[in-house]
Specification:
- With 306 residues, the chain is mainly α.
- It has one domain: MetI-like (MetI-like fold, Orthogonal Bundle).
- It is built from 13 helices and no strands.
- It starts with a helix and ends in a 6-residue tail after the last helix.
- It comes from Diaphorobacter ruginosibacter.
């Protein structure tokens, strides 16, 4: 284990990371957000979803440094008396889980279809690529709204688990921001790999096509997928926040950052700015840090920039 860590520390990627202050700051911010989200039950000062602990008399309190604020609620409270800081931590956990799971589903679908399309060619490739063209022609948010709306119409009283599953599916299939980019990227890389000598040698020696695809081609096309996935996590989180802001995302009983922004938007012009500003800042920090890490990883894995 120590030797593996030592080799990684001396690698070009680790050196690129150590020499990039932007990547270090982005990694620290992303780590803090992820740590607080994963361990929300221990980090958050209150449980904002425990109705027995809410006090309506503490509703719409300003941040602690503002007049009439209280250090019991450092970032203030919302219209239900929930601690904004605690709601941010729990909401970030929901947003991160939905974003990561939706990206993972997009990778599975896109990589599989891209491998099949690049390896088989012919009519299979034509059908899959035309499908990608059709899906990409629709705005991502409209596709996600359509999927979420149809699911809500079919299952109007769906449980939270079903609601989150629908949200993940809506983001994973959301036009060009979902599986389509992975399919196109992997298809192009697969076509390049199938033209190389090691694949030709494996085919001549009688290696099964599925084994060639799984053991030889797949590991060599995952580099661009990793970079794309890092950037797509931020896009998925923003899409989830948009859907929740429009009322078709996370259920109200488990609000994400988008839901918190939507709730605070009703009080923005009445002076309670902190209800919507702090969730917005949290969303920007998460998306920006992940995007900066994705940009650094893209440059670090690009052999032309070494």
């Amino acid at each position: 284990m120590k030797q593996t860590l030592a080799r990684w520390w001396d690698s070009d990627v680790a050196h690129s990371f150590r020499s990039s202050p932007v990547a270090i700051v982005a990694a620290v911010i992303a780590f803090i957000c992820a740590f607080c989200a994963v361990f929300a039950g221990w980090v958050a000062p209150h449980n904002p979803f425990d109705l027995t602990t809410l006090e309506l008399s503490d509703a719409r309190l300003p941040p602690a440094w503002v007049e009439h604020g209280s250090w019991k609620y450092p970032l203030g409270t919302d219209d239900q008396g929930r601690d904004i800081l605690s709601a941010l931590i729990y909401g970030a956990r929901i947003s991160l889980i939905v974003g990561l799971v939706s990206v993972a589903l997009s990778i599975v679908i896109g990589v599989t279809l891209g491998l099949v399309s690049g390896a088989k060619r012919g009519w299979i490739d034509a059908v899959l690529m035309r499908t990608c063209d059709v899906v990409s022609s629709f705005p991502a948010i409209l596709v996600a709204l359509l999927i979420a709306g149809v699911a809500r119409a079919v299952y109007p009283n769906a449980a939270e688990g079903v609601a989150f599953a629908v949200l993940v599916l809506a983001i994973a299939f959301a036009g060009s921001n979902g599986w389509v980019q992975y399919a196109r990227t992997v298809r192009a890389s697969t076509m390049v790999e199938y033209g190389k000598e090691y694949v030709q040698a494996a085919r001549v020696t009688g290696v099964a096509p599925l084994r060639i695809m799984r053991r030889h081609v797949l590991p060599n096309v995952l580099g661009p997928v990793m970079v794309l996935a890092t950037i797509q996590v931020a896009t998925a989180i923003i899409t989830e926040a948009t859907l929740s802001f429009l009322g078709v995302g996370a259920p109200p009983t488990s609000p994400s950052l988008g839901t918190l922004i939507r709730i605070g938007n009703d009080y923005l012009f009445s002076g309670e700015w902190w209800i919507t500003v702090f969730p917005g800042v949290m969303l920007v920090l998460i998306a920006l840090s992940v995007n900066l890490l994705g940009d650094w990883l893209r440059d670090a894995l690009n052999p032309r920039l070494r």
